[in-house]
Amino acid sequence: MTAKTLFITGGAGFIGSALIRYLITETPCRVVNVDKLTYAGNLESLASVADSERYHFEREDICDAAAMTRLIAHYRPDAIMHLAAESHVDRSISGPAAFIDTNINGTFTLLEAARQYWDGLAGERKAAFRFHHISTDEVYGDLEPGLLFTEETPYAPSSPYSASKAASDHLVRAWQRTYDFPILITNCSNNYGPNHFPEKLIPLMILNALAGKALPIYGDGQQIRDWLYVDDHVRALYCVLSTGKIGETYNIGGHNEKTNLEVVTTLCQILEQLAPDKPAGVANYVDLITYVTDRPGHDLRYAIDASKIQRELGWQPVETFDSGLLKTVEWYINNDAWIENVSSGAYQQWMETHYDD
Ligand code: NAD
Ligand code: DAU
Fold it and tell me: Could you tell me which CATH number the domain at 5-197+229-255+302-319 has?
């Protein structure tokens, strides 16, 4: 049997790059990374696997129908794993247009290109093809105390980001119901780990603390998120792609409900151990915590019931929150070059010199 070819959108992002590193090092798959390289795309995150003969990179926009049709016809994938998205809630509040374009229109464009390709397949290849849509627990909205998000929880998105992801989930499900198109959907909780762009809570707090800058907590910091180490998410994605049932949705989460204040306080404690030489004027990292204006429409709580994927597919997370957070802080302390290039914007120049368009 020949190794599978996986067409991965958004592979230069935080989760996509972790997925590709896993696929190249732990599986025989051939990977085609299709990424527009927005501010969130960083090819440096793929430096360790970029020389593999099984890795191919294509800089394209998923909203470009002709490009998607051409690339899919050229690479003839066995599956598409669709991660490309605008992913940051705060940016969706200040500028929602890109979220509508990429998350809704881009998903529609990719679905149509993929469906036309799948229509032309026959026999085993047609039966084995999958379109795996990677989505978020934010589609379910704000969760009351005591409850968990299941795959049956009704959608109630709060932000432009989560509304755009909810719309894309609905499109993907409709393509299955209407055209029998073989889809899988996963909805995951908050990821954290290496190579995370420092606009998101955990990397922002680590880098700010190391620089002696304020640690901005929105509102009272009592909002709850359910944290999952990114490599656990990646293993779940490959597990769902390989063994999930067509048309099904799988929730993925880490059973790590923490308030934002708990997360930031824990990070400060880890930094006290790993980076005791603090910037001038900082007695304790925790003193840098600053309460700022809350995010508009801020969801108070998310928490995933991941029992379906555990029961039906046998996946469960490996990292605890303590072990994952420690690894994450160590990674940020030990990867000056990646951080320096992201902080200065030089990573975008790096991509121009390392990738010949
Ligand atoms: P990210 O912002 O780090 O990466 C997104 C990637 O998509 C970037 O490489 C970017 O260049 C690319 N991209 C954006 N617009 C594009 C377009 N029009 N065409 C092609 N490429 C484009 O995002 P992430 O955190 O890695 O999230 C990946 C996926 O997982 C998203 O769909 C997100 O909704 C979902 N998700 C994320 C989390 C999380 O905690 N980060 C949790 C659950 C689900
Ligand atoms: O739940 C899954 C989602 O998790 C993904 O779908 C999104 O793509 C991903 O960005 C993430 O969304 P959040 O909005 O939860 O992540 P963020 O890191 O932006 O914020 C986490 C929490 O921390 C949230 O309650 C807002 C708060 N926060 C965030 C920042 C950046 C702060 O208090 N201060 C901050 O400076």
Answer: 3.40.50.720
Is 161 noted as a catalytic residue in this protein?
Answer: yes
In 3D space, the residue among 200, 173, 197 whose CA is nearest the CA of residue 187 turns out to be 173
- Tracing tokens 């529609």 back to the chain, one arrives at 108
Q: For residue 151, which of 250, 76, 221 has the smallest C-alpha distance?
A: 250
Domain extents in the chain = 5-197+229-255+302-319
Could you identify the residue written with the tokens 């909002």?
223
Single-letter amino acid code for the residue at 71: L
Whole-structure pTM value: 0.98
Atom of ligand 1 nearest to the CA of 39: 11
Question: Which is the catalytic residue, given 75, 161, 285, 347?
Answer: 161
341 Cα distance to chain centroid = 21
Q: Which atom of ligand 1 is nearest to the CA of 161?
A: 34
- Residue of 15, 83, 89, 262 to mutate, ligand 2, most atoms within 8 A of C-beta: 89
- Strands 224-229 and 257-259 turn out to be antiparallel
Question: How many Cα neighbours within 13 Å face the side chain of 100?
Answer: 5
Tell me if 307 sits within 8 A of 231, measured CB to CB: no
Residue-wise pLDDT tens for the chain (357 aa)? Answer: 469 999 999 999 999 999 999 999 999 999 999 999 999 999 999 999 999 999 999 999 999 999 999 999 999 999 999 999 999 999 999 999 999 999 999 999 999 999 999 999 999 999 999 999 999 999 999 999 999 999 999 999 999 999 999 999 999 999 999 999 999 999 999 999 999 999 999 999 999 999 999 999 999 999 999 999 999 999 999 999 999 999 999 999 999 999 999 999 999 999 999 999 999 999 999 999 999 999 999 999 999 999 999 999 999 999 999 999 999 999 999 999 999 999 999 888 877 776 655
- Classified as helix, coil or strand, 34 is strand
